[in-house]
Write a structure and sequence with these properties.
With about 160 residues, the protein is mainly α. The protein has nine helices and no strands. The longest helix is centred in the C-terminal third of the chain and has 34 residues, at about 125-160. It is elongated and about 80 Å long.
Length: about 160
């Protein structure tokens, strides 16, 4: 297949969003975008597209940031697409794929019959390696989160109110 071993093979399967994000956005739009603003735009002669782009999108920045954070974390933590859609191009592996491969290689070498590899890896603290890899995987999310925290909290609380 032509789509395998490309960047698009990693991006396209995750574009279909989940139901939670759709419900969150629907309730946000229903509860926080006043109907009066929409009616005023229509009276002023704005089309549907203009109303959406000039009024709704600026008012929806908190929910857009929230859904963006959810989607970003989902892509960051996704390791399955790399194993399914990347056969030859390992340079496109995400950090999660690389960390999973390291853990699998360590487990294979410790369980293999090769006494030299087992003797070398006997001193390797596997739990410490796993914890170090977990920190390496979480660090980018910890760096980005403070910048979107205000929008994230606002988007969740306003979108969580059922109208």
């Amino acid at each position: 297949m032509a789509a395998l071993d490309t960047f698009w093979a990693l991006l396209v399967p995750g574009l279909v969003t989940n139901g939670f994000n759709i419900l969150l956005m629907k309730s946000y739009f229903a509860s926080s975008i006043p109907d009066e603003i929409m009616e005023a735009a229509y009276i002023d002669g704005a089309s549907e597209t203009q109303t959406f782009l000039r009024i709704v999108v600026p008012l929806a920045k908190p929910i857009i940031a929230t859904i963006g954070l959810f989607a970003g974390i989902a892509y960051w933590n996704d390791w399955n697409n790399g194993y399914v859609y990347l056969n030859r191009r390992q340079d496109l592996y995400s950090i999660q794929n690389l960390l999973n491969r390291i853990v699998q290689n360590i487990q294979y070498l410790t369980q293999s019959g090769d006494s030299n590899a087992a003797a070398l890896l006997a001193d390797l603290p596997t739990v410490s390696v796993r914890m170090a890899m977990a920190i390496a995987g979480v660090m980018p999310i910890l760096v980005v989160y403070p910048f979107v925290q205000n929008n994230f909290v606002k988007g969740i609380t306003l979108g969580g109110v059922k109208g």
